[in-house]
Each structure stands twice: as structure tokens, then as C-alpha cells.
Known about the structure:
- It is a single chain.
- The protein is α/β, with parallel strands linked by helices and 383 residues long.
- Helix 8 links the parallel strand 5 and strand 6.
- The model is unreliable at 342-346 (pLDDT under 50).
- The protein has two domains: 4-252, 3-Layer(aba) Sandwich (Aspartate Aminotransferase, domain 2), CATH 3.40.640.10; 254-379, Aspartate Aminotransferase, domain 1 (Alpha-Beta Complex), CATH 3.90.1150.
- Strands 1-7-6-5-4-2-3 form a seven-stranded mixed sheet, with helices on both faces.
- It contains 15 helices and twelve strands.
- The longest helix is centred in the last third of the chain and has 19 residues, at 254-272.
- 45% of the residues are buried.
- The termini are far apart.
- Helices cover 39% and strands 15% of the residues.
Amino acid sequence: MSDQQNFATLMATVFDDEDGAMTPPIVQSSLFSFDSYQAFEDRMAGISDKPLYTRVQNPTVTAFEDLMTKAESGEAAVGFASGIAAITSTLMAYVKPGCKIACIEHVYPDTFRFMERILRPFGVEISYHSAEAFENDADLLSGVDLAYLESPNSVIFQPINLQKVSEYAKRHGTVTMVDNSWASPVFQRPLTLGIDIVIHSASKYISGHSDTVAGVVVSSFSHIARIRDLTLSLLGAKLAPFEAFLLTRGLRTLNIRMMQHQATANLFVDRLSAIPQVRKINSPGANAVPGLTGRSGLMSVEFDDSVNIPKFSDALNHFRLGVSWGGFESLMLPARVGLAQAGEQNSMQKFGVSPNLVRLSLGLEDPEDLWADFVNALSQSAT
Length: 383
């Protein structure tokens, strides 16, 4: 796929049903039977790929996985019940006591918690590094088993040169994993840049309608086979048929939605730079790093001390206050609330994030309506 038009066309036309159906049917069955002993034996021996049990395989889920495989230019994919299930199941397929993980700084908070609360107590060594360190230190990954990346990372949205990091990783035999939820396959395809495994919280832009919680992993045949064998089947965080149906629907409109998210984000970035209360705008755009071809609607803005964050939050009308992002609606998340969850008392210091930072998820409303709402709330937010 050379451009967004090719992507849009592929997502609209790739499903081919012998009966002419435009959308994969929802196969709401927990198990599948066999016509003969031989057919059953062949399936259990791995000779046949006929569906067996929905915890490991379902036709509706397979249709979504096939579409995601093509979207990310991979060889295979596996769906999960949530984004964090995709992250943790992928990590658990590769870690063992004593192995080393190099993780990007400012990683998604629940990924950080999983590494610190689950993996570290089991003897996994974890270190955190800036995007600059990953890009500039060719030996950072020496002796490292896994490199866990986000591009851009969470909260402060620093992009990383995935192609350069993947080249370093291959020299040292390090497996690379990247969360690509922010850019989506419309604006970035990490597998084409040399990354081994791509992970999505499909609840976000892939779904796009704030009605689905899901995750998906795309990679080579061998990596996906390992994840299916070790953690999809044994941890059981499977994707359900109805959610897979909704995700397939979301993929069909992903390209045009991402174009609108980008247009609104571009408007905000251009105008925010003229607001004196704004200290910093975190929103990488097209070509910020090789392979990143566009800007999504998720950004963060750091205000100066003259802005009262609670007052600003309460004065918003079109922006809802809430977690998650990537849907049709616009959301605002104050960092002092979003990073202080789960009983971590010093999370702002721990993550090095200003308490005056807010995260914006720009939805599909009229951009001028969103901007007017933002400016109006800001005018009412003086301390």
C-alpha cells in the first residue's frame, strides 16, 4: 500500500464472501463440530484449520484478524478481549525469569504497572529509556531480550525513529514490540520499518465508536503462532465474535475518520501556538520521524500556572471528561487525575509530567465548535 487511498480501497473491498455478503456474519457459537473422526483428528493434529472452539478460533474473529493483517502489512494477527490483554499476552509469550526488557519512557500507565507489579516480582529485569536514548545508543539493546516501544509514547507524545531502533535490535537479537494505537495503520506501519510485533488497543481508532473494548496483535506467522499457542489459549483473553464484527465495521471507515481527526488536530496545533497560557503542545505531525505520515487527534497541552485546571475542565461543553480516546466524541483528561489512579501517590513526579498538562482527544465534531469551546473554557479558568 503506497498511500492512504490504497488503504481506504483495501479496507472497503478486501472481504470476499461466496454468497455476496458485504460484511462477515456474526458466528455466535462457542464450539464447532466435525463430520468424521478423521476430520476431528486432523484438526487436533494441526493439519486442518477448521474452527474448533471460540476461545482460540472463530470465523468472525478470523475475518477481523485477516483485515488487520492486511492493514498493518503483516503475515498474521490475533485478537484479544482488550488492549491491555493484547499487551500482557504478547509480553507473557516472551518473558521468563532473568530476561531483560528495555521499555520506552512515558509508556501507557497500565503497561508500566504490569511490568512493575507482575513481571518484575517474577524476576524480569526492566529498564526505561528516552526516545533519544533508543535512537542514539546503538548498544543500548545489547543483552536485552525485548524492546517495548510506543511511537509516539503516552502523555507527552514523543515519536521515535522505529526504523533505526529496529536496525539496532536486529544486531543484538532483540525482539521489538510497538504499540501503534496512536497513529493507526493509516499513519504508520511499524512492520514495514523492521519492527517485529505491532500491538493495538482496538478500542481506540480501530473501533472508532466508543462501543468496543478489544486488542489485536499483528506480526509474522511464527510470532503469532507463539502467542496463540502460549497465551491466547492458556490465558484465555479471547476476542468475542460481536466485538470482532464491530471492529471490522470500524476498519472500513478508519481512513476517512483519521483524515478528519488530523484536520482538527492541525487546526488546534496552529492556533494553540498563539495562546499565551500555553507552554507546550505535544502533537507530532507527518514526517516527525521516518514512517510517520500523519497526525492523529490525540495530543496534550501544558498550561502555565495562570490556568486553573479544575475550572477549565468544568467550563468545557463539547469536551467530555473521561479516560480512553479515539472515538467520535472529544475528551479531555487532566494529567493530575489520569496519572494519579491506582493508588500511586507520586505518579506525577514518577512520570515527570507537569500537573498543568491536559490530554485532548479530538473527535469528529465540527472543528470550529471544538475550538470555540476550548477558548471559552480557557477564558473562565483564571486562577
